[in-house]
Write a structure and sequence with these properties.
Elements: H1 5-10, E1 30-33, E2 50-52, E3 57-60, E4 81-84, H2 113-116, E5 124-127, E6 139-142, H3 146-159, H4 172-175, H5 197-206, E7 220-225, H6 230-240, E8 246-252, H7 264-271, E9 282-287, H8 300-318, E10 326-331, E11 334-336, H9 338-346, H10 352-355, E12 398-406, E13 408-412, E14 424-427, H11 430-434, H12 483-487, H13 493-499, E15 503-512, H14 518-527, H15 539-551, E16 564-565, H16 584-593, H17 598-609, H18 613-617, H19 623-626, H20 637-640, H21 656-662, H22 669-681, E17 684-690, E18 693-699, H23 705-713
Parallel strand pairs: 7-8, 7-10, 8-9, 12-15
Antiparallel strand pairs: 1-2, 3-4, 5-6, 10-14, 11-15, 12-13, 12-14, 13-16, 17-18
Helix pairs in contact: 14-15
The chain binds 2-acetamido-2-deoxy-beta-D-glucopyranose (6 copies).
Amino acid sequence: MEEEQEYFLLGDETIKTKPKIKTNKRRIKIITIFSILFFIGFYSIYKFFINYNEVELIFIQGKSRKDKYGVELNKHILDGIYCIKYDNKESNLEDWKLYTPPCPYLRPVHYPDSIINPVCEESSLQFINFDDNITEIPYSIHLDNISNRLKKWDQWERKNKEGTVYYSDLKVSELVKDEYYPFDYGYKGEDTSNIGDVEYYNNVINSRMDEVPDPRRRRLFSFILFNSEYELLDLYLAEYYEIVDYFFIYEANTTFNGNPKPLYFTRALLETDRYDKFKDKLIPYPVKIILDEDNGRGKAFPREHLARRTVISEGLKAVHARHGDLFFHGDLDEFIKPHVLARMKKCGGWEHLQAGIGGGPKSFKDESVETYFINKDMNVTNYQNGEYNMNYDRHKSIGFESQYFTYSFNMIEKSDIRTNFHPNLAIFDARRSLGQVSERKNLKEKRREYSDPLLDPNFDPYQGYMYTDNTNDLHKGKGYLGEFLRFETSTNILKLKEQDKPVIWESAWHLSSFLPSINHIYNKATSYSHFYEFKVKEEAELKKDIIDRIKSYKYLYGDEVKYKNSTIIVPESYKQGYPYNFDFKYWDEIFKKKDTSEEVQNYLQILLHEIPSQVWKNPICYSYMLDRDFGIKKKLWWQIIPKSLWKVIRFETLEPSVFDELMPNIFPDSFKKEMLEVISKEKYDILLNIDGHIYNITVNEPMKLNEAIEIENN
Ligand SMILES: *[C@@H]1O[C@H](CO)[C@@H](O)[C@H](O)[C@H]1NC(C)=O
Ligand SMILES: *[C@@H]1O[C@H](CO)[C@@H](O)[C@H](O)[C@H]1NC(C)=O
Ligand SMILES: *[C@@H]1O[C@H](CO)[C@@H](O)[C@H](O)[C@H]1NC(C)=O
Ligand SMILES: *[C@@H]1O[C@H](CO)[C@@H](O)[C@H](O)[C@H]1NC(C)=O
Ligand SMILES: *[C@@H]1O[C@H](CO)[C@@H](O)[C@H](O)[C@H]1NC(C)=O
Ligand SMILES: *[C@@H]1O[C@H](CO)[C@@H](O)[C@H](O)[C@H]1NC(C)=O
């Protein structure tokens, strides 16, 4: 999950030490195969136990699980995959030595209508204003509802039949202006709002790739890489469940350094109820890493690149992406602010900055339409790395300007300048996927004997987003290099400026090493691509080194870069949350007047120092993100509350002294009072499993600790 960018940016001259990677030299040898079939957990999984000489692998397999639209969510586990067991011995997830329970209050964050359903035509989206340096006031784009944009495109097209407009020569500073820059969604159909979701999306996922769905109902997908960070994944899913349509989650049965690891996510999904609240949007993608290539900096980075490439190409296929859908890729610790993401999904008016003038696929039913995957006479050339030389977009993706925090929201890389521009978001283009030439490029097409490629089962309608050679990281194949979606935005602000890249201002958090305990941080340090940067290898020594780094605000890897203090701004009111205003007129005024009044400054400070909803809504669960002494000097909630009560504990029923011990001390009393009021009113149906006995408890009233203990004792 670590930063590739450093590699591109720093160049080889900064890498002084040769990579040393501990390899697992133990030879794995099969002795016997027991074909015993087990059914466990809430869903049936078959586990064939296989005896290896030293490491015992188990077989993980899922059954078909289709969602209401017909998407097969278990597509990638139907055939099954092997992995090692938790701690290398047969055990339940809860017995894993690094297991942490989910927050007992974990559920999708429900956002107010103003966030989830903004009035687009009055709203805005902010972009970095490089000319003013980035601490200054951003550009604001006037957003609009997509119905309006469709009409405007129609009018523009009628007037500009011959016109071929490309934005490549216009600067970002021009394209953000509040005037109409045409963008073609490629949609010619009716407003579909009278069709129910099930019918509508069922049709979409079964539609031909050369048909364009209603952009007002475009979907949004998240493609992420997972190692074992359950807490971050909980947070991620809770933050985005209401906004994102599918989460496609990559996890390998070895780390990028090549050490075998359990399939933590896939198993938790199959065997526990941890993800039940999110399950209908979760698609596991467990893989075996085949790449074994040293790029001069170890074997981990090439594997990371390939992981990024395949999580995108396989993700698009798994969710049945169609023209105009949005997808983003980043690491699990890269969080786009939900209010930004919601505006981008729902509202139009920003798309031309990523996809230029746009345009949809042409129908293969029209006989003049060809694909360069079949008709090589179309003379579509490839760049050196094999990517097709076609102009479908202005930039491969749009980046999000992140605050780069480490260990907790208290430590920031640089407080005066942003240093990270991930994750990245792009619009899925069916023309690229199908290998059609861009509508607005006057390429002479030679007619040939025609047949509709979409009727050919061997024609893959996603091949434009795939790469033909994924056995290495040498770019010897042809097609789309998904990892470049991420590399579109450098971490070098001056380079971004020079390249005139559109970057969405102050729009994300980077939660680097936000892990609950020192053991978790140690585990991360030994699994990821930067591992060799540690000079020491012994566990105790490495842990001490890590604690010293945390105490002295130093980054986990590499150079002992010192981080800065950052002050968290929490919402004043638990019920209201942060006061947002993204009204276009408001921002336009600020921009035009270079308004630096106190009121504006205060609002900008909130946007700089706000934290995710799930965190401030559940400060006891995420205490270590708010105060780094938690998990190191101070105890976490699950280190105090007994395991049998993890699922039922109601924090509002705790003794005040225990409550205060667990609650980070950064909230005003009024906030705490409101919080207790709100959480004690919520109702819960809880299935409590104690030693295999299931208790069904409907908690209308908060359950007192002693009542829970009574149930446990009975
Ligand atoms: C990873 O999965 C593959 C495919 O099931 C299997 O052959 C391989 O042994 C597994 N490796 C480990 C370390 O679990
Ligand atoms: C932006 O920052 C750079 C580097 O610190 C500086 O050289 C430049 O003058 C600044 N530009 C503006 C417009 O303030
Ligand atoms: C779009 O905005 C117009 C005003 O410009 C409004 O009349 C219309 O109802 C809006 N449509 C939707 C679907 O929000
Ligand atoms: C493609 O290139 C070949 C060789 O240069 C040429 O003969 C042919 O006419 C070109 N086809 C098109 C469609 O431009
Ligand atoms: C951050 O703030 C704390 C508390 O005020 C202080 O002890 C520490 O030295 C500061 N660290 C840095 C890197 O500024
Ligand atoms: C638990 O009890 C509630 C209330 O009696 C009931 O509605 C619910 O169906 C029960 N759940 C299970 C899984 O038995």
